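ok trying this again, last paste got cut off
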Amino acid sequence: MPDGFSRPVSERTVVRYWRISLGIGLVVIGAVALLLSTLATIVTRIEAGAAEIWRVGKLIANNTVHVPLLVRTNQVVADILPAADGIARATERIQRAVAGDPTE
């Protein structure tokens, strides 16, 4: 007899150990499947969040590109403003003249 074995193991005991081992294996496989499913769901949410961040970032970058154009627009408006004020005053004078207002 080999060391550590005092008597032969019955076939019933071997079958019982196999069933216990297979049961434990099925429980472990089920737990791993559940964890992988949860992980896949979390990864999908993370990917969706990253895609939204990317989309918004591109919109912000697109708006940032136009900032120098707004600076130039402000310069042009500042140049036009005195002429627009003159036109507004002239329009008021014309309206008063048409209405017959003598306070011209």
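PB: full thing came through this time. DSSP finds two helices and no strands in the chain.
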